[in-house]
């Protein structure tokens, strides 16, 4: 019999039987002589009781930072049992193990699970204790895995060598669409390797390379990423937060984006971009017809930089939907210019400005935008209020990456304004 046919029969058989994950878990704990993790058992029981678990699949949320219920963080021994239970659970399409205490030892079981599993689409391992060896195991497992779409390794200190394993994996894997290696202590060598591989890889739609450990001021990694953008026609979302990007890097990225027709979300937050550097971005926005989200949070573009952007947005650009200029030392002149551009440009719907220098002219300008309905209250991070006849702005908890490090315990936020990101223009259901 054809092996694929046998797998198909097995999958239909498993799907037709009501799940009993908790009972399987307890039995496997007994078989392996492992103590029960009560938090894991509770999550599995809730999955068993879910009405649409078989129809739509389910993501098991076993996050160690849940504050609404008693949490017993998942250990290497716990994940061994869990992997054994889930190997036949074809209705489990997502596994969230963020903020637990998994090490390279436990990741071995996760890697084996990835090699054998054919239904998991989403795996979140952010902020565990995974190192270089664990990165190698996960990356090697993805050489053969053909179903995982979204992997988050955020905050695991895999280092430059671990990043190289993922670069090698991207040469082979043709399925993974979103990879998050932010805060992983990546180095110059692996960043260049990843950039080189992405010139050929057509599967990856979004990649996060935030906060590498760079020891050079030459911006060679940014130059290589720019070269990649000239040749890549599939990448949609790129995060380059804390890359020490200066004038040369901004110039090269903008030159590449004149030729790139796919990138929709560019994150340049927490770099060293000045008012003069923003001229390159302003000129780019005059011609670019693709970019929809631009994050310049925590740079130093000041009034002149804000005016460059406002001129491009008012007179030329009609594709940018979201702009963050939070904490950029912009004063009244620059912020008022941005508010004026929104009166002309009807496409720009999300703007985040908190952390700059507000005067009454700024407060009045954004208050008018909100009151006129041009700027929706949940599409910005400020809210006007009045004291003694003077308008002021208060901060709202909205932004492009509000839920990057955490997700509310009550579930994902459907309101795109609360966590704009690519939810503004999603690529797939996993973005």
Keywords:
40% helix, two-stranded antiparallel sheet, 431 residues, 15 helices, disordered C terminus, disordered N terminus, alpha/beta
How would you explain this protein's 3D organization?
By secondary structure, the chain is α/β, with parallel strands linked by helices. Helix content is 40%, strand content 11%. The protein is built from 15 helices and 13 strands. The chain has helices at residues 3-16, 21-31, 38-48, 53-56, 76-86, 104-116, 132-144, 159-172, 188-197, 220-231, 247-257, 278-287, 302-315, 332-344, 360-371; strands spanning 58-61, 92-96, 122-124, 150-152, 178-180, 206-208, 237-239, 265-267, 293-295, 322-324, 350-352, 382-387, 390-395. The strands form two sheets. Strands 1-2-3-4-5-6-7-8-9-10-11 form an eleven-stranded parallel β-sheet. It has a two-stranded antiparallel ribbon with strand order 12-13. Strand 5 (178-180), helix 9 (188-197) and strand 6 form a beta-alpha-beta unit. It is globular and about 70 Å long. The model is unreliable at 1-17 and 422-431 (pLDDT under 50).
């Amino acid at each position: 019999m054809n092996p694929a046919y046998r797998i198909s029969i097995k999958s239909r058989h498993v799907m037709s039987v009501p799940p009993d994950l908790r009972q399987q878990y307890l039995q496997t704990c007994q078989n392996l002589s492992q103590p029960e993790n009560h938090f894991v058992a509770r999550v599995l029981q809730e999955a068993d009781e879910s009405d649409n678990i078989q129809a739509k699949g389910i993501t098991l949320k076993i996050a160690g930072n849940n504050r609404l219920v008693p949490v017993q963080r998942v250990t290497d021994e716990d994940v061994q049992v869990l992997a054994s239970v889930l190997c036949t659970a074809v209705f489990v399409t997502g596994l969230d193990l963020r903020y637990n205490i998994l090490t390279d030892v436990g990741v071995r079981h996760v890697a084996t699970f990835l090699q054998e599993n054919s239904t998991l689409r989403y795996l979140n391992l952010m902020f565990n204790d995974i190192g270089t060896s664990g990165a190698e195991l996960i990356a090697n497992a993805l050489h053969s895995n053909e179903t995982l779409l979204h992997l988050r390794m955020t905050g695991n200190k895999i280092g430059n060598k671990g990043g190289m394993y993922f670069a090698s994996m991207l040469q082979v894997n043709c399925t993974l669409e979103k990879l998050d290696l932010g805060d992983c202590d990546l180095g110059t060598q692996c960043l260049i390797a990843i950039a080189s591989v992405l010139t050929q890889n057509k599967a990856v739609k979004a990649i996060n390379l935030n906060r590498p450990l760079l020891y050079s001021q030459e911006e060679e990694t940014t130059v290589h990423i720019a070269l990649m953008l000239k040749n890549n026609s599939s990448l949609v979302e790129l995060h380059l937060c804390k890359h020490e990007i200066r004038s040369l890097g901004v110039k090269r990225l903008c030159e590449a984006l004149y030729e790139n027709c796919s990138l929709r979300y560019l994150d340049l937050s927490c770099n060293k971009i000045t008012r003069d550097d923003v001229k390159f971005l302003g000129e780019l926005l005059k011609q670019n017809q693709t970019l929809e989200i631009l994050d310049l949070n925590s740079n130093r573009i000041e009034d002149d930089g804000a005016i460059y952007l406002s001129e491009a947005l008012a007179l030329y650009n009609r594709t940018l939907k979201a702009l963050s200029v939070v904490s950029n030392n912009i004063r009244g002149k620059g912020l008022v210019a941005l508010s004026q551009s929104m009166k002309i440009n009807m496409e720009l719907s999300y703007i985040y400005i908190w952390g700059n220098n507000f005067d009454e002219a700024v407060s009045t300008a954004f208050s008018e935008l909100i009151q006129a309905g041009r700027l929706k209250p949940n599409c910005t991070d400020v809210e006007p209020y009045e004291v003694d006849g003077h308008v002021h702005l208060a901060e709202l908890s909205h932004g492009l990456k509000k839920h990057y490090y955490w997700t509310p315990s009550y579930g994902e936020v459907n309101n795109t304004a609360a966590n704009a990101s690519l939810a503004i223009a999603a690529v797939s259901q996993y973005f």
